[in-house]
Design a protein that fits this description.
alpha+beta
């Protein structure tokens, strides 16, 4: 068993020493029955021992204290015993189980009424009411005091737990928001820069391996063009990250009207006459929400970048089709599993496309598929378009 807390030991010692002093000074009442008065000291010792249980076992302490109080009253009451008993009633309500918290105050009220009636029946004098008042003071008052303290304590604990829960939820929301923003910036960096870097890698390899000065000059021109565009995109993203005085200005959102420019850049980056880039735009005049248009544009952009790096010679077809409440984006290219990539990749392009589609609650698939011209690599996304979609800014 663990040691008693210092507070319990202090209360027990104070009550015991105070009771001994009162008994020594003769400040004790007359015994009710023919019981030796020195037994009041035994009741005092037992009551002090019960005080040591006021927190660890409050109901046991109260039961022991009730027995000690009975012996104290019969042998000549010492005020210290009464004071310690009131503390045991208070502690039983405050530290006891919920059932005791609800039962003890009502029990003290019933006990006080019954005790008053018994005193009135025995004494048959108005002074019997004083016995009832005294019984109420040592039982009802400490019991309801414990109820008040416990209510405030439980309310404070609930408020503290709620505050901790709110703080935890706020921290989780903050981490989720930071993670989502990091993922968004990672997708943007990959999508806008990877295409330019892939073209630089492909053409720099060609410039190093081809001895034709004219071909090398053309490759270097493409390298310079993609370097300039890549730097411009990087500066734009860095400006957004630093919030360089443009927080109130809407950021430009790429539009699907710029897909032709993506195809032109892909033709220049491919550097192979065996590639043919075509666009089948079947969207219709219906405007698209900005998130859907941005997701579709980035999917086409990343798919063309992957085709330049991995696809075999042949047709690279981009199809945009507006269906019933959705936009279908499909990019197909010749599947070439034998040869390695013409430029190194990070392997996160498909992951980023899948995340973009998930953000607008769409469907995404990518992988080999059979086509009219043989085995193909197909990227297909179905992006839902609300009935009241607004045009992208």
């Amino acid at each position: 068993m663990s040691r008693s807390p210092r507070e319990e030991v202090l209360i027990a010692a104070t009550g015991l020493l105070g009771g001994v002093a009162l008994y020594a000074l003769g400040l004790s009442s007359t015994p009710v029955a023919a019981v030796p008065g020195r037994l009041a000291l035994l009741a005092l010792a037992v009551m002090a021992g019960a005080e040591l249980l006021r927190r660890r076992a409050p109901l046991t302490g109260l039961a022991v204290g009730a027995g000690a109080l009975t012996l104290d009253v019969l042998s000549g009451s010492i005020m210290a015993n009464v004071a310690m008993f009131t503390d045991l009633v208070y502690a039983a309500v405050l530290y006891g189980p919920p059932a005791a918290y609800r039962f003890i105050p009502r029990a003290t009220e019933v006990l006080t009424v019954v005790g008053t009636l018994l005193a009135a029946a025995i004494v048959r004098a108005p002074s019997a009411l004083l016995a009832g008042i005294g019984l109420g003071v040592i039982t009802i008052v400490p019991a309801w005091t414990g109820v008040g303290v416990r209510v405030h304590r439980d309310a404070a604990r609930s408020a503290r737990l709620e505050a901790e829960r709110t703080a935890l939820l706020a921290e989780l929301d903050r981490r989720e928001a930071v993670g989502a923003e990091r993922a968004r910036m990672a997708r943007e960096l990959h999508d806008v820069v990877a295409g330019h870097l892939s073209a630089i890698a492909i053409h720099s390899t060609a410039a190093l391996s081809i001895g034709d000065p004219k071909a090398s000059d053309e490759a270097l021109a493409v390298i310079r063009e993609n370097s300039v565009r890549g730097l411009a995109e990087m500066r734009r993203l860095i400006g957004i990250l630093r919030d360089a005085g443009t927080a109130d200005e809407p950021a430009a959102v790429p539009r699907l009207d710029g897909v032709e420019a993506l195809l032109d850049r892909a033709r220049g980056a491919a550097r192979d006459d065996g590639f043919v880039f075509v666009l089948h735009d079947e969207r219709g005049p219906r405007p698209l929400p900005a998130p859907v248009e941005l997701a579709a544009y980035r999917i086409v952009q990343e798919s063309l970048t992957n085709a330049v790096k991995h696809a075999g010679p042949g047709e690279v077809a981009v199809r945009l089709a507006g269906g019933a409440g959705s936009l279908v984006v499909e990019v197909t290219s010749a599947f070439d599993a034998a040869s390695g990539p013409r430029a190194p990749g990070s392997g996160t392009g498909l992951v980023g496309m899948g995340e973009r589609v998930a953000l607008v609650d769409g469907e995404f698939e990518a992988g080999p598929a059979e086509g009219p011209a043989g085995r193909q690599w197909r990227v297909r996304a179905v992006l839902p378009v609300p009935e009241e979609g607004t045009a992208a800014p």
